[in-house]
Amino acid sequence: MNETSLPLKQRFKLSRFFQGEEPVAEPVILNQRRIFILPTRQGLLFAALIVLLLLIAFVYNNNLAYMLGFLLASAFFVGILHSFKALAGLVVWAGNNPAAFAGTGAGFNFYVQNPANQARMAVDIRLQQRKTIDFEPGQTRMITLYVTAERRGWLACPTLTVSSRYPLGWFRAWSPLRFASNVLIYPRPARELLPFPETDAGPGEQGQSRRDGDEFHGLKTYRTGDPVRQIHWKSFAKGRGLHSKEYAGTTSVELWLDYAMAPGTGVEERLSHLCRWVIEAEQAGMRYGLILPGLSVQLDTGAAHYHRCLQSLALFQA
């Protein structure tokens, strides 16, 4: 929260009034350096009314008109101070952000603290989405704002704008803030769920699945993740639904998801199918590994392994 002084040239840089200063990781206190104020449309109309009233008072030499004009003008200028105080002293900082998939909304978490002993009314907080919030004295609130994620990889936080038109709407006070905050964007999962690849070997291991015994045990309802070669096609052809053959001593499937086996002509299309396979394999409770050019994630299961695989896909460079 240490505020370093800005050179005069940077203070009057036009982008600073709309995009804010350089991104920071620490909390930011809204003060006279970061808060800007301009009249709104209503404020300009009110100022024009004051000028007209004073002009009438001058032409007709009417003291009551003078008094009313100066009274309205004093309220107008006092409104500048109250607009500044609506934001002054608020403390804003960025929180941790959960990962998201491309094509969905990426959530950025922010904390806003009102350390003053007075309430702050109708404070607008905007990224792409806007929220209007009232803050009680001493209150700290977490606000989540969503931005559309188009591409995989790291998504930098856009400029956060904190603004207010309190109390009468004659002025808009705003503060553009930039934080060194990012969201990891996973690849967009493929809409079409294709069968898992029939890989025969992974790095240092043999086989996609293991069977301790080859004795046929019966049929079971097909579940996502069952090997294609174990599907009982005869029962499916007879209209009895999709079933898998079950063998005595069958253990859990070990699945290798290989970039070279993924369908698609481009990098993004292949990563999209790999992403869908990772999601389905995790939901099916399978042990799975990931093979990418120059990188492999060993067989495992669980939430940590799931996010490790998706992160590898998100940051993959062809």
From the coordinates shown, what is the CATH architecture of the largest domain? Answer: Sandwich
In sequence order, what are the helices and strands, one letter per element?
HEEHHEEEEEEEEEEEEEHEEHEEH
Number of helices: 6
How much of the sequence is in beta strands?
Answer: 25-35%
From the N-terminal CA to the C-terminal CA, the straight-line distance is 40 Å
Structural class: alpha+beta
Describe the structure.
The chain is an alpha+beta fold. It has two domains: about 180 residues, Immunoglobulin-like, CATH 2.60.40; about 110 residues, no CATH class. Helix content is about 25%, strand content about 30%. It contains six helices and 19 strands. The strands form six sheets. Strands 2-11-10-6-7 form a five-stranded antiparallel sheet. It has a four-stranded antiparallel sheet with strand order 1-3-5-8, with no helix packed on it. A three-stranded mixed sheet has the order 4-12-9. Helix 2 runs antiparallel to helix 3 and helix 5 runs antiparallel to helix 6. The longest helix is centred in the N-terminal third of the chain and has 23 residues. The radius of gyration is 31 Å and the shape is elongated. The protein starts with 7 loop residues before the first helix and ends with a helix. The relative contact order is 0.12.
